Amino acid sequence: MALWTRLRAIVKQQPFLRTVIRLHSSSSTSILPFRCYSTVGQLLSKGDQDEGFQSANPANSVTDSMRQINQSIDWNTHESLFKYTSGRWLFDEAKQLAKRSSNFDMNSLARLAAESVGSHTCSSVVKVAESDLNKIYLMTTGDGKEVIAKVPHTGLSGGIIASEVATMDYVRNILGLPVPKIHTWSSKPNANTIGTEFIVMDKAPGVELQHVWQGLDHNQKYDIVEAVVKLETKLKSSTFDAIGSLYYTDEDLDLRSRRFVVGPTTERWVFDGRGEDACDRGPWSRVEDYLVAIGQRQLSSVKSLDCVSRSPSISGSGPGWYKPPTTEKVRYLEDYIKVAPYLPPYKDPSLTAAVLWHFDLHGGNIFVDPDHPTNITCIIDWQYASVRPLFRHAGHPAFLNFKGPKPLLGLQGDAAKIPTLPENYTDLSELEQQAAVSLLQQQKLYKAYEMFCALRNPSDGQVVPEQFAAQKATFDNVREEFLNQAAMLSEGKAQWAWAWPFKDDKDMDE
Fold first, then answer.
1. Which of 68, 108, 109, 493 has its CA 20 to 30 A from that of 200?
2. What is the DSSP string of 77-124?
3. Residue 335 pLDDT greater than 80, yes or no
4. Using CA atoms, how far apart are residues 44 and 165, in angstroms rounded to an integer?
5. 3-state class (DSSP) for residue 387
């Protein structure tokens, strides 16, 4: 009650704030969490959020007395900040929730987050997202600054945080990609006051692409596809001498040192929940060793986890479903390990070059300017980014995925043809026509990504002699489809031909 009494006293002393204080019960805490709003209207429009103290305008409305109260808030009593609350399980729920729980000193993290940006207090802690591996918190300081704190679940280690920090530093400060600035971090839970690994970084500017994508016109969507390809081209421009993930040469180095090394991989297949058996995580200097290590990891899982999983599966456990025995799975994997050294495309060194890549470019990880949505303002979630052979990165970014038939891959022959509406389009119902148009738009964007990738090949156009004929045919196909996409009328096509960036010198003189 002492806290409530102090709050009432503050309201009486500062009536001009028109502060509305709402207390809501919590069976799991001895101190009731509360929220502060400057007007009733804000209280009604704000709606329910995760627990925490929130001030509508901390920079202006928080008094010295309120700052003292902020310092006394015990964030550790808010249990749902640490528990997984985004889903339930019909079986093994206690085990699933335990795997996704977190146990650390939130008070220390909030204090450190505030100090890392030159503030004294943290006025709000809100859990804004959580996954199988992490929890994400939005922390607001007493003077209105916002930062993101990322904390892995209890027991998850393996260098994930150390690699993510080094990777974000590299792509932000070496390659110049729009990535959040990191203010403080630790990959040594036993050496900090918080008791866990963590990252404190800037909140991403802009809005998530997934929130504005449907409202964009076709040209804007094409511009975003091209912008993503430009970012990927920057990643592709930097190659490494080994396969794995990025780290600092010394974790105790200051963020400004920027000395990097390729170490053990943090790819998703290492942390797939199939046991803690040791596996070869690299780094690898040879592509074949990397491919063999993946097969050995799968083989170890099959042998040690009794047919991989004993959990029931709606998609594959019914009567009559094909369920290969463990011995058959082992045989297939052993055959893969034998042939793996012969799989890489050794004839083209550019395809086996080790490059850094972002594997999860869905609409929630790409942020854009709300006023100019074709401008990408930030790329987040570099946790699984790793250095792999370029041919292992082949694929479309997740934000372009869609349900329905995909266009043929490639830019030669039938694959070079731009998708069109079905021949019986005029015979379809209105709803079917709308669905056909929507599918066509998605297919064109899917194909546009391939075209922009081809256009971003080295600008000098140099290729090895034995590949010239095939590469020239691809190049010419890309040019033709570029012009077809750019203008449907022949006179417009001529103008775009002039805009084609890759011309012979004789063309430039005309």
1. 68
2. G-GGGTS--S---SSSHHHHHHHT---S-HHHHHHHHHHHTT-S-EEE
3. yes
4. 39
5. strand
Residues 121/165, Cβ–Cβ less than 8 Å: no
Sequence-distant (≥ 6) Cβ neighbours of residue 134 within 8 angstroms: 150, 151, 152, 153, 383
Q: DSSP 3-state assignment of 317?
A: coil
Q: Locate tokens 């679940």: which residue?
A: 153
Q: What is the pTM of this model?
A: 0.75
Query: Quick check: 214 and 363 in contact, CB under 8 A?
Result: no
Give the residue with greater pLDDT, 478 vs 390.
Answer: 390
pLDDT at residue 163, as a whole number? 94
| Spatial distance between the Cα atoms of 422 and 427, rounded to a whole number of angstroms | 10
Task: Look at the chain and count its residues.
Answer: 510
Would the pLDDT of 213 be above 80? Answer: yes
Sign (positive or negative) of CA dihedral 51, 56, 59, 63: negative
CA 97/CA 101 separation, integer angstroms: 6
Give the three-state DSSP class for 243.
strand
The tens digit of pLDDT for each residue in 17-56 reads: 333 333 233 333 222 232 332 222 222 223 333 333 333 3
Binned at pLDDT 50, 70 and 90, residue 494 comes out as: low
Q: Are 189 and 195 in contact (CB under 8 A)?
A: yes
Q: Any idea what DSSP says for residue 421?
A: -
Task: Indicate the residue type of 94.
Answer: A
Q: What would you measure as the largest C-alpha separation in the chain, in angstroms? A: 85
Residue showing tokens 């920079």: 59
Residue in this structure with the two tokens 């043929």, named with its chain if needed: 408
Helix-helix angle 326-339:287-304, to 10 degrees: 170
Quick one: pLDDT band at residue 375, thresholds 50, 70, 90?
very high
Q: Closest Cα partner for 168 from 158, 159, 178?
A: 178
In 10 A of CB 500, how many CB atoms? 14
